[in-house]
Structures are given as structure tokens and as C-alpha cells.
Amino acid sequence: MSLEIGSSGVKVSDLFTSPVTSTKAVYDWIYSYADPRVDNWPMMGSPFPTVAIFITYLLITRYAPAYMKDRKPFKLKYPLILYNMGITLLNGWMACELLYCAYMRSYNPVCQMVDVSNNEYELRIANVVWWYYISKCMEFMDTFFFILRKKESQMSFLHLYHHSTMFCVWWVGARFVPGGSVMAAVAVNCFVHVLMYSYYALAALGPHIQRYLWWKKYLTMIQLAQFAAGVTCGIYLIVSGCQFTRWMQYMFVAYAFSFILLFGNFYQHAYLLKGDGRRPDQKKDAVCEKKQQQHNKANGNMNGVVNGKTATNGNLTYRATATAATNGFSKNGTNKLI
Prior knowledge:
By secondary structure, this protein is mostly helical.
């Protein structure tokens, strides 16, 4: 006896006997759960434009670095400042808009069903979730700036996984659940992005500002706390029987947990350990100590003479006729080759 896929009326065996018809039936069944309010919104009519952009992004990250290999990196100081400030302002607006609308609707911050009515505030919440999805596409520029500046080392698996999948996952969010408990997750992430992109904007101003930006480490800690809170909240919703879309709860918990693993690994290697197993501060101390030893050694073998004593500089020997000389040159410049 073949299992049926949900309430689609399609059995698993049908996918093999009549794949086209069965796949379409499953697709239509899934789409029956989509929020009808966003049917005619840009990019919401079908998942295929999002999938096409996703694939294009991956192709660019695969081949564009090779195109830039023999070219000079672009200096993009001002575009970076404008871009990062723009993303900061967008996330700030989204966070404020969500919090205001949730307050006006007396939202439960943990368990809240999606209201698909045309209430003014519910439509505004759905609109923000849609803009949040669009912002994930805008953030592809992070990667493109790395490529143009030849900073491919920063295009880690974590970076590519985070940027590419967020765009796809939040298409699902905007299409099926643009409201309810999703609101809290979006608002928190927008707040985190305000901190992140304001940091990036300041860093783009140059070294004279970068030396004062001491909180980069704490941005990663905030991100980890965000994901941990998300997983905890998601598990609570599942266990407590919250009626917010159950499949979304499972997907969110699994997705947030993957970020805990990846960001945790990044934090460990970036801030706790370096390649030789030492913390960055320990390695920095070791480098400073080595430089000091080299400096002392150089001073001990300084090329020059004092009070007429002979000093060796490579294969040449000099004698100073003045009373004091340093690095082979006397104060009056009367060194003689002997």
C-alpha cells in the first residue's frame, strides 16, 4: 500500500508512474496553503524567479573570482559606505515597523497565528516580511564586493550558505507565513543587522576609524545568541502545541540550529583558536616577543662604530674618524673605507 503525500491525493508510487501529473498535483496542493494576500506581489507568483536568482548567485561566486584573478581589485570605499548605510537604514525601518504593528495588534511575541485578513496592520506586517525577503537578495552585494575587491578568502562556506539559503528560505516565509510568530524572528534579525551593517559602514571609512571598532567579536556572539534563542523558542512552540504553522516551526528550528554549528565553528577559529592551537591574543604576544628578540639581536650587531672602533657591514669594513658614529656614518660624514 503506497503512502499518500499529505492531502494532495497523490501517492508516492504515482510520482513514478505519472511524474508530471503527480508533481503538478503536489505543487498545487502545497500552493493551496500560500497566503492569498501576496498572490500578486512581485516575486510571489512562483518560486522559479527566486530559484533562478539563487542559481545565478552560485554561478557568479563560482566563476567571477577566476575572471578577477589577473585584474586589479576595485577600490570601492564610497559604494561600500553607501551600501552598508542603506542596508542599516532598511533593517532599522523594518524592525520599527514590525514592533509598532505588533503592538497595535497586541501580538503574542512567542506564539501568534498568521492573520490573513486585510487589516491595515496585518498588511503592513506582511509588507515588511516581503521587504525582508527582498533584502536578502540585496545582501548578495556583500559577496559581489568581496569578488570585486579580490577578498575571496572571506567567501567561506558559512558566508555562501548563509546568503544563498536565506534568500530562498524567506521566499517561503513571505509566500506562506508573512506574519504571526514569524514577526519576532524577523524583528530580532533586523535589529542584529542594524548593528552588523553599521559596523561595516564604519569599517569602510578606513584604518583611522577601524582601530576604534573593537566590538566585531561581540557581533558574532550576538548572532549566536540570536540563533540559540530561535532554536529554544521553536522547540518550545512545538512542545507546547502552539498552532502556528507546524511545518514552519520544524524548518525554522533545523535551519537556526545549522547556523549555531556554523557560526560556533567560525567563532572558535576566529576568536578562540588560531592555526597553531593558540588563542589570537596568545599568538599576537608570541609574534611581538619574536619581533622584540629580532630587534634586540639587530641592536647587538649594529653596523657602525663608536669612538673609532671598527664595525663590519657585510663584507666591507669602515672606520669612523669622528668621535662617534652610528650605522657606519659619523656625524660629520667623514667615514673612510679601509
